[in-house]
Amino acid sequence: MTDSLVFSLLASTLRLSTPLILAALGGMYSEKSGVINMALEGIMLAGAFTAAAVTHFTGNPWIGLVAGIAAGIAVAGLHAFCCIACKADQVVVGTAINILMLGVPPLLSGAFFESTGSTPSLQQSQTLPNLPIIVALLAVPITYFVLFKTSFGLRIRAVGETPEAADTAGVSVSRIRYASVLISGGLAALGGVYLSIGQNSLYTRNMTAGRGYIALAALIFGNWMPTRVLVACLLFGFMDAVQIRLQGVGKIPTQFIQIVPYIFTMIVLAGFIGRSTPPRALGVAYEKGKR
Amino acid sequence: MKSFASVALVVLLFLSMSCASRIRKDEAGKIKVGIVFDIGGKDDKSFNAAAWEGVKRAARDLPIILRDAEPGEPNNLEPCMRAFAERDYDLIIGIGFAQGPILEQVARDYPKTKFAIVDSVVDLPNVASLVFKEHEGSFLVGMIAARTSKTGKVGFVGGMDIPLIRKFAKGYEEGAKYVNPNVEVKQNFVGITDSAWNNPGKGKELAKAQFEAGADVIFQAAGNSGLGVFDAAEEMKHFAIGVDSNQNWVKPGFILTSMVKRVDVSVYLIIKELVEGKFTGGIHSYGLENGGISYALDKYNEPLIPKPILAEVDAARDKIIKHDIKVTDAMAK
User: Fold this and answer.
1) Which of B211, B209, B146, B149 is nearest to B174 (CA)?
2) Secondary structure of residue A206 in the 3-state scheme
3) Has residue A204 been placed in a domain?
4) Could you say which of A71, A92, A199, B71 has the lowest number of CB atoms within 10 Å?
5) Is-above-0.90 flag for pTM?
6) Number of folded domains that form chain B
7) Residues B109-121: what's their mean pLDDT?
């Protein structure tokens, strides 16, 4: 294998991992605070679609980037409202949002572009540079610092582990959870924005193709620890990049090669990371005064 | 509060899930045509887009009422098709191989209704099967690819790994080898499920990998995922070849040509036959000989292909029509 092939493999790994890293880190904020974020997929779709549509109308990917993140935060806000204020079942709400976000972009694209779920192609000058990749890599130490070295992070973890104790200490459980879910929305949306106007130049229906769920799996496999989650996402991206280059080598059927990343990631993570322990109050709505 | 939120979500859910058919009370007397698209949807700028173009033209030229449905996912195909049949539509058109078995079932249940299916063969008297000799067109663009390539390596990116797409790949490979026996043809597929038609990110990665491995022309037959192949070609300043519709306009200067499959003509003609009372079931075959398959040449790609290559390709086309060149049909049993 020559140097350029190694380089291309690594570059491909980074490109494929970026949406996963961003979404998984987003999920971490939410889940550390005790709110399961099944809606990552839907948030990514919202960010991806909004970014592509706004960039098409304004011609400026930076405005698209901001709009995409705003859309993701808005969807996360819906998730937070249902989970925190209405105390609805978090998995059900997240799933509902994912299905909703399969339907909303086609509806809007029908109104704006007379299409059913995709936006017009952007010129290459209208796409983002590789910034999201750098942001994704920087977000890992930043997330670690915020969650484990700041008082805000301590509060997030406190409301995720023992909300009663945090409440007694005068921390507003719902305010911290809202903040965490909204941050989660912003990060996951950036992953979606990268898909539509960074890596590609348009939005197509359901273009995340399950990346939100893979991010969620990486979060669990990575035991809610930033560095381990990074490793899980990079590993998956790497296996996907290898898989792409393995196709067509020899007579192995495509079907087999394409399941390699999933199997390999599962084996490695299950074997090396072992038992994962979720935040204790994960998935439980907090009710004041309840014992 | 809790129950309100659940109800609101459920309502939103149903709104977002309802399949896209807009069926109203129809005007009497006119012939009613319903079209059910493939998973890619009608704005894939490719296969479905061509079908949509054809039926829209028919709706302009002929006295018909046209309604369309985009199922979005495989499980919605049958309800969409039955919705048309139950409402006494005169002709129901299914787009794409995936609808073959479903259309066969529905066509058995409604023997008086006429059906047409693109890319699949359903052996019933009330079904017209519109099939294309994609391998022949792929052969021609394979020749153009191999003649244009400076590295002697060309690529193919397919969508879902199915026999129909293998048919494109095989024809392409034979065409490339016809002009340059030493050419290396790299073949990749985006995926093995129907989401492979809607994954431009993966399409782009596959194309980049092929370009980085030395290919400089890539033919894509991958629906929406193919748009990622175009992005890669633009980014790395190489060529891509479009499919199904004439896609030369999508990235001018980077799309060498398109393997055009006139799905639009085939659906237009079947509607016209129905309107004129001449509808017949059975296989309607489209190939080079009747213009159902061709390669695209327009203002966007004329500067890209030298005249001698065009002459060579046209000579090969005539030979294929006369069966002097035999292109392997990877789907033939």
Assistant:
1) B146
2) coil
3) yes
4) A92
5) no
6) 2
7) 94
Strands B91-95 vs B114-118: parallel, antiparallel or unpaired:
parallel
- Per-residue model confidence as pLDDT tens digits over A125-157: 888 888 899 999 999 999 999 999 999 999 999
Look up tokens 């439980």; give the residue: A284
| A16 interaction partners in chain B (CB closer than 8 Å) | 201, 205
B105 in a structural domain: yes
Nearest to B2 among A15, A86, A204 (CB): A86
Q: Which pLDDT tens digit goes with each residue over A199-219?
A: 888 898 888 888 999 999 889
CB A125 within 8 Å of CB A207: no
Contacts of A263 (CB under 8 A, 6+ apart): none
Are B16 and A99 an interchain contact pair (Cβ–Cβ within 8 Å)? yes
Could you tell me the sign of the dihedral formed by the alpha carbons of B314, B315, B320, B322, in that order? Answer: positive
Instruction: Assess: ipTM above 0.90.
Output: no
B42: which chain A residues are within 8 Å (Cβ-Cβ)? 115-116
Label residue B256 by pLDDT band (50, 70, 90).
Answer: very high
pLDDT value at residue B331: 83
Residues B28 and B110 in one domain: yes
**A206 has a chain B CB within 8 A of its CB:** yes
Q: Residue B185 is encoded by which pair of tokens? A: 């043809």
**Residues of chain A above pLDDT 90, percent:** 60
Q: Which chain B residues are Cβ-neighbours of A258 within 8 angstroms?
A: 191-192
The answer as to whether A248 is a domain residue is no
Domain span at residue B92 reads 21-132+263-290
Same domain, B215 and B179: yes
Do B91 and B150 fall into the same domain? no
Q: A11 in a domain, yes or no? A: no
Structural domain boundaries enclosing A127: 21-209
Task: Kindly give, in sequence order, each residue whose CB lies less than 8 Å from that of residue A168, ignoring residues fewer than 6 positions away.
Answer: none
CA triple B236-B242-B243, angle to 5 deg: 150
Tokens of B305: 């292909």
